[in-house]
């Protein structure tokens, strides 16, 4: 199976959106780790006066993580899947949260306007056709000194990390995907994890894209060495640093 891209991937997520929240609930650390990555942006004052961008918001778990870290910020959440976005927008949100249907690669001409102080991208970069193009777009959307947190499956260099992922996928994720009728989406998930940058390589990709202060931070539990938070900033003076 080839990796799903663009419209084919959006359609698969549209279909998978019906059971997505139930599936991620099987992972007890899913929402906890997203909140950890959002906190790693280091936003002061509950985000008061800041504009934040949630890239690839899915059904809203990453949006909720940003909101918990910065309840007073303006948050714009973007996703290419209409089905995922519909389920996100149907949940209860305060007035400072807005949802926009758009691929990250084509946000021009949408409601995503102006510059942002920080962005969170969760489980996004494995799924785009051109990660470098998207990183360039994100860099241009951020203020000078703007911060980026990428929460992503990016395996460490050891064989153990690949082995643990393969066991978890085979024992838990693949059977769940079959039960919901979304086997193709979860086959894509497996291939995208195995074929994506290793953690050190993605950190280098961020540096090549013009981001400074790149750090690779681990996440706890079974995801150690499998999922990481990458934090970085654009050149310039940051606002609202805690």
Task: Characterise this structure.
The structure is a single chain. The protein is globular, with a radius of gyration of 17 Å. Strand 2 (74-79), helix 4 (82-89) and strand 3 form a beta-alpha-beta unit. The protein contains eight helices and seven strands. 42% of the residues lie in helices and 20% in strands.
Strand order of the largest sheet: 3-2-1-4-5-7-6
CATH architecture of the domain at 27-156 and 196-233: 3-Layer(aba) Sandwich
Distance N terminus to C terminus?
45 Å
| Biggest sheet features | 7 strands, mixed
Mean pLDDT: 93
CATH fold assignment of the domain at 27-156 and 196-233: Rossmann fold
N-to-C order of helices and strands: HHEHEHEEHEHHHEE
Structural class: alpha/beta
- The general outline is globular
Give the fraction of residues assigned to helices.
Answer: 40-55%
Q: Poorly predicted ranges (pLDDT <50, ≥5 residues)? A: none
Please give the number of β-strands: 7
Radius of gyration over all CA atoms, rounded? 17 Å
Pfam family, one: Ubie_methyltran
GO molecular function: methyltransferase activity
Organism: Actinacidiphila cocklensis
Protein name: CrtT-methyltransferase-like protein
Structural descriptors:
globular; Rossmann fold; 242 residues; 7-stranded mixed β-sheet; methyltransferase activity; alpha/beta; CrtT-methyltransferase-like protein; SAM-dependent_MTases_sf
């Amino acid at each position: 199976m080839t990796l799903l891209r663009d419209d084919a991937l959006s359609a698969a997520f549209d279909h998978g959106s019906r059971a997505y929240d139930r599936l991620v609930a099987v992972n007890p650390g899913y929402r906890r780790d997203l909140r950890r990555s959002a906190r790693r942006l280091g936003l002061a004052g509950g985000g008061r006066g800041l504009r934040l961008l949630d890239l690839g918001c899915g059904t809203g778990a990453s949006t909720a993580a940003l909101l918990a870290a910065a309840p007073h910020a303006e948050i714009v959440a973007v996703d290419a899947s209409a089905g995922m976005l519909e389920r996100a927008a149907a949940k209860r949100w305060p007035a400072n949260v807005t949802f926009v249907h758009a691929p990250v690669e084509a946000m021009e001409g949408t409601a995503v306007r102006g510059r942002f102080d920080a962005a969170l991208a969760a489980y996004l970069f494995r799924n785009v056709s051109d990660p470098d193009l998207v990183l360039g777009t994100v860099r241009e959307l951020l203020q000078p000194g703007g911060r980026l947190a990428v929460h992503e499956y990016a395996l460490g260099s050891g064989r153990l990390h690949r082995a643990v992922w393969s066991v978890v996928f085979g024992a838990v994720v693949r059977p769940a995907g079959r039960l919901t009728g979304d086997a193709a989406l979860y086959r894509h998930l497996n291939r995208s994890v195995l074929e994506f940058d290793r953690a050190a390589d993605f950190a280098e990709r961020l540096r090549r894209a013009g981001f400074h202060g790149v750090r690779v931070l681990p996440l706890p539990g079974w995801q150690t060495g499998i999922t990481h938070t990458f934090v970085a900033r654009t050149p310039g003076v940051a606002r609202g640093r805690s």
